[in-house]
């Protein structure tokens, strides 16, 4: 592979990045070739030293999506960053996707539990206040006021869990972005 082929492959694989980023990347690699040629190396030797242009492009794209996720927090940007990091290799697929999927399902589970508690507490309150087909005292021998307070407590618990899970989601987002950055830095080395 020569300089022209290397730069062409690199340019075609970094499509989607801003023009400024693309120009900077191409300029850097043209500079690598100039420095290498001034040291008496052939274009083929320089290409071997630099590595696969497709892998280099994947790395730049992953960095770009991670920066975008950091600067513009949204679920869409986070998942794009995760997917671009997992595209860097099978090792990365396991290392990045495993913890992400587990964390995501824990958050979904916590949201589900909190919503269930809120709905269950509201159902208890409405069932007692509006009346039900079967008097509650028959089953447990407890008066209605106790059940109303129990329902209010369950709704409160559900609200506390959902608020905590919201903050946990924000923390998860920040940690996921840091983890992806760390992962990219490990791969670069």
From TrEMBL:
<dbReference type="Pfam" id="PF22564">
    <property type="entry name" value="HAAS"/>
</dbReference>
<keyword id="KW-0472">Membrane</keyword>
<protein>
    <submittedName>
        <fullName>DUF1700 domain-containing protein</fullName>
    </submittedName>
</protein>
<keyword id="KW-1133">Transmembrane helix</keyword>
<keyword id="KW-0812">Transmembrane</keyword>
<feature type="transmembrane region" description="Helical">
    <location>
        <begin position="104"/>
        <end position="126"/>
    </location>
</feature>
<feature type="transmembrane region" description="Helical">
    <location>
        <begin position="147"/>
        <end position="168"/>
    </location>
</feature>
